[in-house]
Amino acid sequence: MSTEQQDERAEPDEHPEGVERQPDWWHRDHPTFTALTGFFTGLAFVILVPGVFAAILSAMFDYGRAEELFPFVLLTLGVPIGLVAAPRTRRFGRYMLIGMSTTLVVVVGVAALVVWFLVEVEG
C-alpha cells in the first residue's frame, strides 16, 4: 500500500511516522475566512482609527491644534487602497472597503434618524 493510500485511509489524527500533517481547513486560505476577516477589519478600522488618532493628537497638542490636524486621519485610507492594489491582498482589501462603507452608511443613517427624531420631538 502506498503512502497516499495510507493517508486517505488514516483518520485525521493518525499519520504514518515521518509524514508532516497538513494544516486543517480553517488554517488555510479559506474564502469565507478572508471575506469575514476583511469585513470586520474594515468595521473596526472605521470605529477605532479615528478615535485613537484623536486621542493621540489631544495628548500631544492643545485642542485647537489637534482639531487642525485631525483631517490627516484620511491618509489612513491608503491602507485599504493599497490592499486592493496588491494582487495577493486584493480580495481582503475589497471586503475591508465593503466593511468600512457599510459601517459608515449605518452610522450616518442612524445619526440622521436620531437628529430628525430629536428635531421633531423638541421642535
Element-level helix/strand string: HHHHH
Number of strands: 0
Q: Whole-Å distance between the termini?
A: 83 Å
SSE-based structural type: mainly alpha
Main β-sheet: number of strands, strand sense, barrel status? Answer: none
Q: Tell me, briefly, the overall form.
A: extended
Number of helices: 5
Proportion of residues in extended strands = under 5%
Overall pLDDT score: 85
> Segments where pLDDT lies below 50 for 5+ residues?
none
Q: Compute the gyration radius: what is it?
A: 24 Å
Helix content: 55-70%
Which features characterize this protein?
mainly alpha
In words, what does this structure look like?
- The chain is built from five helices and no strands.
- It is mainly alpha-helical and 123 residues long.
- Helix 2 (31-60) runs antiparallel to helix 3 (63-69), helix 2 crosses helix 5 (90-122) and helix 4 (78-85) packs antiparallel against helix 5.
- The mean pLDDT is 85.
Short summary:
Helices cover 69% and strands 0% of the residues. The protein has helices at 3-9, 31-60, 63-69, 78-85, 90-122.
SSE diagram, text form:
Elements: H1 3-9, H2 31-60, H3 63-69, H4 78-85, H5 90-122
Helix pairs in contact: 2-3, 2-5, 4-5
